[in-house]
Amino acid sequence: MLAISIDSGCAPVKGFVKKHGLFFMGMKVIIDEKEYGDSFEFQENEFYKIVDSSRDFHTAQPPLGQVLEYYNDIKSKGFTQLLDIHFSSKMSGLYETCLMASKMVEGLDVFVVDTKKVSIGAFLVSKRLIELAKSGMEISRVLEEVPRAISNSFMEFSVPTLKYLIKNGRIGKAQGLAGTLLNIKPILSVDEEGFITPIAKLRGMKKLQEQMVSNVVEFLQERRKDVVLYSIYGSEEYRPMMEETRDRAIEALKETLGIRLEDLELINGRIWPTIACHSGPAVFGLACYGEKNSS
Predict the structure, then answer these.
(1) CATH no. for residue 280?
(2) How far apart are CA 6 and CA 168, in angstroms?
(3) Backbone Cα Rg of the chain
(4) Which pTM was predicted?
(5) Where are the transmembrane segments (predicted)?
(6) In terms of CB atoms within 10 Å, which end of the chain has fewer, N or C?
(7) Where a domain ends, among 110, 129, 150?
């Protein structure tokens, strides 16, 4: 019997987690030296009430012993296999810790997956793999689909400052932007290895939004089947920017690619604390998923 787990760095959607009976692994969030466990309740009811007035915030991964305990708990519920899906291994040591734990647990075959994405991008990869697994596909075939799910997913986000990414060591290949953001707004993504990388630098919010919309349209040009659009924001002030950019993307997909609203699966959410502690809460982003039509 197969169990499936997703972590808080994959921006899980509550209804989706409940629908598919997923297990959930939360990173530790430390705010002004007080430790919290990332969870739906913490994300929805606590984090954004306290983070803006905090002096310091960062994350820590669950230790090896805790992961092993998590696996054994899943095994105790009668499961013999576990598909354990995680956000980019280049953003956290959690993936490697889970690999170690997977070799230590007895009586449970654990398949640890690196989505090589973060947040909303990681969710779209996870979503595809979970739906395949739940359709009855053999786990070996699901694992073979990981590269395709990654290549069919695109994510982008923008932050007004890189100080949190620098401070938390998550700057990746965007290091060259440090100190250059005066009046310049970057669009960041995740490269093929799973590192954060800049894909554009623009002056002004309007140009930024236009470029983000253009990026989505370009990515979906040859991927018009099973399209999903996931938009996300952090601090409340970024919600209107997220909503406007999302709505522009919906209109552009219809006008340019003929993808109608009723043909889209739309997901809207708020960035999880696990990722907001890396990027800073002042952030908004878009991710999309699409497949090529079979010819």
Answers:
(1) 3.30.1180.10
(2) 23
(3) 19
(4) 0.92
(5) none
(6) C
(7) 150
Distance CA 113, CA 95 (A): 8
Sheet holding 23-25, edge to edge: 23-25, 2-7, 81-86, 109-114
Using CA atoms, how far apart are residues 174 and 180, in angstroms rounded to an integer?
11
Using the 8-state DSSP alphabet, how is residue 40 labeled?
H
**Which is nearest to 160 in space by CA: 238, 243, 58, 254?**
238
Task: Count how many residues are written for the chain.
Answer: 295
**Residue 45 located in a structural domain:** no
- β pairing state of 57-60 and 34-37: unpaired
How many Cβ atoms from other residues are within 10 Å of residue 182's Cβ? 5
194 falls within a domain: yes
Please give the single-letter amino acid code of residue 10.
C
**28-63 pLDDT, tens digit each:** 999 999 999 999 999 999 999 998 888 888 899 999
Q: Cβ atoms within 10 A of the Cβ of 188, count? A: 24
- Contact assessment for residue 87 and residue 120, using Cβ atoms and an 8 Å cutoff: no
Helix (H/G/I), strand (E/B), else coil: 21 = coil
The answer to whether residues 190 and 137 belong to one domain is no
**One domain for residues 79 and 170:** no
Query: What's the CA gap between 240 and 231, in Å, rounded?
Result: 11
Show the DSSP H helices in 21-153 as ranges: 40-45, 47-50, 64-76, 94-104, 119-134, 139-144, 146-151
Burial 215-229 (b: 16+ CB within 10 A, else e): bbbebbeebbeebbb
Q: Residue 269 domain-assigned?
A: yes
CB-based contact 242:231 (threshold 8 Å): yes
Which tokens belong to 245?
A: 């950019």
pLDDT in tens, 66-101: 999 999 999 999 999 999 999 999 988 999 999 999
